[in-house]
Amino acid sequence: MREPVGFIGLGGMGQPMALNLARTGTDLVVWNRSPARAEPLLALGAKLASSVDEVFARTRVVIVMLVNEEVTDDVLGRATSAFAERVPGHIVVSMGSAAPGYSRGLAAEIRAAGGRYVEAPVSGSRKPAEAGELVALLGGDRDTVAEVLPLLKPMCREAVLCGPVGSGLLMKLAVNHYLTTMLAGLAEAVHFATRNGLDLPSFQTAIETGPMACDVTRVKIPKLIDRDFSVQAATSDAYANTRLIADAARAAGVATPLLDLSSDLYGETVDRGYGRLDMVSVIEAIAARTKKAEL
How far is it, in rounded angstroms, from Cα 295 to Cα 288? Predict the structure, then answer.
């Protein structure tokens, strides 16, 4: 877009996403609670706003990449007079994870205030974010989605149109259902191989040359072998996602036995102090269960 674009939220995912936009020449106006996160963007020509109000005053399309619903409400000033002053005439694009019902409610309030809304949660972690290889899962009315699609291209290798607001987040939950259970299974397999004295590089070769090979195995198996828990996707976020999925499943009357077991493991991992480390640290909860069984 030739017009300036707002970007709010420069955390582990938001910063590399915004950097990819800036590198393509997008005129960005950014804001983050910790201004130091904006420094790499300023070097690429982005402007740092002093407040959320300034972002809305200087841009028409505002991307929001925030950690959860509570922070999103707080930053947007939802349920305050500030919200009604900021939103009219704007398109708000929410790229974080939230409950589908929350997103529908936010969309309704933005429309009532004279704005438009698109949900565009992304599938992928920090490494794909840095490479511009995320997948956006879009929910919203067709005209508004079409208007923001070009803006997503520098951040995402693919954009999947899922339907009205709520559909994009439901699709994200379905994808994360597979991811969280898959990764817990992969961690358990590495633990099994370790305890049986198998050569772990050979285990990695067996997976990566077989039918289960994928980007997840290529990235996560080395981290599991090396116990490298540097964060790409945090365990606490994985656990929160399992709870969102479970809530949506219960609302639809769907049983989730594998998800429920995986959620317990991620919760135990968080309780052991690994919440802000990578979700592969779930192997520690699995190892702890082994030790308990040996007692």
Answer: 11
Three-state SS at 143: helix
Give the up-direction half-sphere exposure of residue 145: CA atoms within 13 A in the CB hemisphere: 19
**CA-to-CA distance for 156 and 17, rounded, in angstroms?**
9
Q: What is the DSSP letter of 30?
A: E
Give me 85's structure tokens.
């002053």
The pLDDT value recorded for residue 295 is: 81
CA distance 29 to 4: 7
Q: Report residues of the chain scoring pLDDT below 70.
A: 1
Burial of 268 (0-12, 13-18, 19+ CB in 10 A): middle
Query: What one-letter code names the amino acid at 208?
Result: E
DSSP bridge partners of 8? 31, 64
Judge whether 263 and 253 are in contact, CB under 8 Å. Answer: no
The owner of tokens 């505002």 is 62
The closest of 182, 168, 169 to 261, measured between CA atoms, is 182
pLDDT of residue 2: 81
CA distance 244 to 54: 32
* Residue 91 β-bridge partners: 61, 116
